[in-house]
Amino acid sequence: MKENYLIAAFRKTAGALPDAPRLNEDLDRRMAELREIYANASKAQQFHLESQILPGIAVYQTLQAVLPKEAALETVRGYIEDRAWAMRKHILRLMKLPGLYRLVPTLFAKGTRKFFGEAAGFSARELDVSRTSWRLDMLRCPYHDVCTRQGCPELCPCFCGSDDITYDNLHPRLRWRRTTTLGRGGSCCDFCLTLQEDAHEISH
């Protein structure tokens, strides 16, 4: 089984330090503690917990034993951003397929309902979901909830930022906007991705 990207990046960082064995043990111990806390989470919730949230928290908190808090945060931010840039490259290759960009708002809507619904700990209010628009306010997010509950709300904006890297400027006719997120202190995450159908709309 492939190791989680955050844990793999941590082990690479720790490998350059003299106390690598202890750091790896501390990370494994913290992951075990977090998994026990969230052992009763649903399958949909576990997808997000295991893919990013719990590893992110465990790595961040373990790094603080050898790095100042801000340096530990920036290190984890770097791990998350590196993955986001890799995902972006993959999506940009797909965007070269003729006409695929036109399906993006619809694909976002379907993906949100499937993977970011109430079963996974999210709560969204759809504002405008159509063939050309995907607009919603995310009112609850487990990334924000769990990071806050585990004493590191400052970690959540790292995950927020990965969305901006991945989805901004994917195509000249796709416009991504988000002015606030729960993790950055807003009352919601105001997601908006629209298809600009003609040159006039693109210029505005």
Q: Mean pLDDT score, rounded? A: 94
Q: What is the 3D form?
A: globular
User: Strands of the biggest beta sheet: in what spatial order?
Assistant: 1-2-4-3
Major sheet, described briefly?
4 strands, antiparallel
The count of helical stretches stands at 8
* Low-confidence region ranges: 199-204
Tell me the structural class.
Answer: alpha+beta
Secondary-structure element order, as H and E?
Answer: HHHHHEEHHEEH
From the alpha-carbon coordinates, what is the Rg to the nearest angstrom? 18 Å
What percentage of amino acids are in beta strands? 5-15%
Distance between the termini: 47 Å
Q: Helical proportion?
A: 55-70%
Total strand segments = 4
Task: Report a brief summary of the structure.
The protein has 204 residues and is of the alpha+beta class.
